[in-house]
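Quick start: read one record
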Amino acid sequence: MSISPTLQECLRSKGSRYEIVRHPYSHSSMETAAAAHIPGDRLAKTVLLEDEHGYVAAVLPSTHAVQFSELWSKTGRRLALATEVELRELFKDCDAGALPPVCMAYGMKTWLDSSLAGQPDVYFEAGDHEALIHMDADQFLALMDDAERAHFSRRMRGMGGMSARQ
């Protein structure tokens, strides 16, 4: 599949400069960072959340976990993880678990963890499990300009700046 059509259109419409980084098939964001030989702090992962009012996407470094209490405080909503069935339904042009961070293009509110803004460059899923988009931080932040920015994650134990396998 490579780049999802929705992501491709979003990148084109924003005039984004990027490169595609191919890597061996991976099952998780930490596996992806290791397979692509990139720092886990620079790999943005997308977590889909929901409540009775609908869906919200949280974009954060792959080395971090969502702090639900922080996100609840910022959004005023009691969000929980969405199911894999819902992911497949909402992101029809992406493989399950390979969600790009441009969830605004899929019609949903998106929150960007502020820790990604401090990185020199950012990588993220292109819509499958074998390709990443790589861009400078300013290009990434311009792409994500419609996302709300806040601090709502914490580094997972045992996660340094590099992925677990590096």
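The domain at 5-155 is CATH 3.90.960.10 (YbaK protein).
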